[in-house]
Every structure is written in C-alpha cells, then in structure tokens.
Protein: Cytochrome C oxidase Cbb3
Amino acid sequence: MKAILTVHNIASDLVTSVWTPSFVGLFIAIVIYALWPRNQAVFDQASRMPLRED
Structure:
C-alpha cells in the first residue's frame, strides 16, 4: 500500500510542478496571439465568414 501512495505522490508532484505551469503559459500565449493588433484583420474576416454569401 505504501508503494501506491508513493507513485501517487510522484504523479501529483509532476502534475503540479510541470504540467500546470506549462498549460498556463500556453493559455497566456494563445490569448496574447488572439489579442495582438496585427492579427485583428484575420480574425475580423473569419468572424464574417458565416454571413458571407458565395
């Protein structure tokens, strides 16, 4: 039973120390990319796509 707890603690420590900051950084990078002024024209064009008649 002690070995199971040790593996659980190692996995929990790995998630909290590596994956959580990685995903937070990825989320921040995506938000910055989406709000960057240079990309505004591309996102405006994509937002009008469903309304466009071909």
Q: What stands out?
A: The first helix runs from residue 2 to 35. The mean pLDDT is 85.
